[in-house]
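Backbone shapes recur. Consider a single case.
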Amino acid sequence: KVRGNACVSRRQIISSYKKEDKAKVIEKYKVGDIIKDAIVKGYSSFGCFFDVNNGELDVLVHLQEISYSRVNHPDEIFNIGEKHDLLVISVDKEKLQVGCSIKQLLPDPFDHISNYELNKKYKVKVVKLMDFGAFCELEPGLSSLLHSSELSWTKKNSSAKKIFKVGDEIECVITEINKEKRRVAISHRLTKENPYSVLETKHPVGSEVEGVVNSINDYAIYLKINNLDIDAFLHYNDLTYSHNGEEELKKYKKGDKLKVKVLEIKTDQQKVRVGLKQTQLDPFDW
């Protein structure tokens, strides 16, 4: 006796229904349409996905259609849940896909990039905070990375997240304009005088300055120079002529005020060395 078996699939029926429904949705869109308030749903290395009309349709904005400025990854520009207007630039009824652009809603800022000048201050808007800096807009569609290294002259491990918040308008100096690579580089620290250059001018090597003990380790004191955001290095060998330097170091605490002599300024390396004993006569100098 032969036993007959039949294999059926409900999934294929549901899938065909969904395909028909999606085709009807796709029919509603045409190139040139503007989709209002699409919600950022997710990222990939090649673009950003948006939810249109509360789940009616998912659309992709390709990496190259996000901004006129260079973008390495969508997370440089977007946050999940944000709303953006989109321009429909392609409709594929066979693949049931709608392609969109954000940058094409705006004029290309690089067409008038010559309006910007190198080494000049401009107001920029903070649009995204990252561990390595902040993405800022000079104008809609023209964004630039403000790297952590360009935040401060003196703080080597500055965090943009601790200094700024999204929406802040800050001053920056344009340090590079590359129209071919569609890149603009900016710096925040250049909006202020280099404190090491100021020190070199006002208090050259050999002059005396006052400061406050900011921190102490096993072999040195770091002295914050008055009116300048600079920590000068004071080695224990430069504390006294007559006593043991290591023992002398133990006499000081954070907050102590000292007058010291400037021994060395390395502006390019952002280093200053000072001495306390050098403010006194050397008893061994006959």
